[in-house]
């Protein structure tokens, strides 16, 4: 891809100090990632792999320990005034709409809140009406006086999306946007996000553990494990021909998969004790079954950390075995 990223991470690391003398936690450990105008990127991985911390760092909610976040070609300024202006252009959509909405606020007030925080000088009612209409809540006047408890889960999520859209952002970060919704509603919300991308040229980072969701909505996918992106590329290329054993394991448990489910041993390692070599090697079936040994990379898997993937836009994998068996 030749288009410059709208939002980018360069050498991004987020390290939290350990408590009571414990080792520091490397929640994000060297990430290169770009999201281009009009592009939807899915960030996938198990719980605890660092997805949400990376998303919060991209939003400016967590300052990086090292590396940088850039937006529209400029490094992110962490002054209060600059961050306020930045968050008008980059909005967050959270997983749980019930937790995102104040139960004492009407739908109108919930959507108008961002306008009031940013001291919007235009027609507030018209802006709220437009945002609700774009989010698929019509007729908008019927929703103005309602409270969150009077809405369905899907309607509450649409209100949250409207609250993000009302400021006309260029990019949204959606953290598990349909995880709390019934299966019958998920498709509607995903279709809404795709329509908004097409109509508004909106970019999005969708954080999810669900590769099926990534398949349905994303242009590109970045697979994260223990603080680092281990495979990335066009969604169809990565999800139809995965090269990293971790990506293969995640795909194997989807209902539509034709492969036998791969059960990974144990939980993801403690990010304060990242294994030597490839960080996935203690759970890698290729190493256990001898395939890495036959390929001549078993020692490298145990001792050599694969290089951090660049943000070239093409398919890449951080795996010693995959790189010698192409």
Automatic annotation (TrEMBL):
> Which keywords fit this entry according to its UniProt record?
ATP-binding, Nucleotide-binding, Transport
Residue stretches making up the ABC transporter domain: 7-251
Under the GO molecular function aspect, what terms does this record hold? ATP binding
Source domain of life: Bacteria
Q: Which InterPro entries match?
A: AAA+_ATPase (IPR003593), ABC_transp_ATP-bind (IPR050319), ABC_transporter-like_ATP-bd (IPR003439), ABC_transporter-like_CS (IPR017871), Oligopep_ABC_C (IPR013563), P-loop_NTPase (IPR027417)
Gene3D superfamilies hit by this protein: P-loop containing nucleotide triphosphate hydrolases
Please give the Pfam families that the UniProt record associates with this protein. ABC_tran (PF00005), oligo_HPY (PF08352)
Q: Does the keyword Nuclease apply?
A: no
The family line of this record is: Belongs to the ABC transporter superfamily.
Name of the protein this chain belongs to:
Oligopeptide/dipeptide ABC transporter ATP-binding protein
């Amino acid at each position: 891809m030749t288009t410059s990223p709208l939002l980018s991470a360069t050498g991004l690391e987020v390290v939290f100090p350990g408590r009571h003398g414990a080792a520091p936690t490397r929640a994000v450990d060297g990430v290169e990632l770009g999201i281009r105008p009009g592009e939807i990127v899915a960030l996938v991985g198990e719980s605890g792999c660092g997805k949400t911390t990376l998303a919060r760092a991209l939003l400016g909610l967590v300052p990086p320990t090292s590396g940088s976040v850039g937006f529209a070609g400029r490094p992110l300024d962490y002054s209060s005034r600059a961050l306020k202006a930045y968050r008008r252009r980059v909005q967050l959509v959270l997983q749980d709409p019930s937790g995102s909405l104040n139960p004492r606020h009407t739908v109108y007030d919930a959507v108008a809140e961002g306008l009031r925080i940013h001291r919007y000088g235009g027609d507030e009612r018209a802006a709220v009406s437009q945002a609700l209409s774009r989010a698929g809540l019509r007729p908008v006047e019927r929703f103005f006086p309602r409270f969150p408890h009077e809405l369905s889960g899907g309607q509450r999520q649409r209100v949250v999306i409207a609250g993000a859209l009302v400021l006309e952002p260029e990019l949204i970060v959606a953290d598990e946007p349909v995880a709390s919704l019934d299966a019958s509603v998920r498709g509607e919300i995903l279709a809404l996000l795709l329509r908004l991308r097409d109509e508004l040229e909106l970019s999005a980072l969708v954080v999810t553990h669900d590769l099926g969701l990534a398949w349905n909505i994303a242009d590109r996918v970045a697979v994260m494990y223990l603080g680092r992106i281990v495979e990335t590329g066009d969604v169809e290329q990565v999800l139809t021909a995965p090269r990293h054993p971790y990506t293969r394991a995640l795909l194997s448990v989807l209902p539509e998969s034709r492969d036998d489910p791969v059960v990974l041993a144990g939980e993801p390692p403690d990010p304060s004790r990242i294994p030597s070599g490839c960080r996935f090697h203690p759970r890698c079936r290729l190493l256990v079954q001898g395939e890495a040994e036959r390929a001549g990379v078993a020692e490298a898997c145990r001792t050599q950390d694969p290089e951090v993937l660049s943000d070239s836009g093409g398919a890449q994998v951080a795996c010693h075995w995959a790189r010698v068996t192409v």
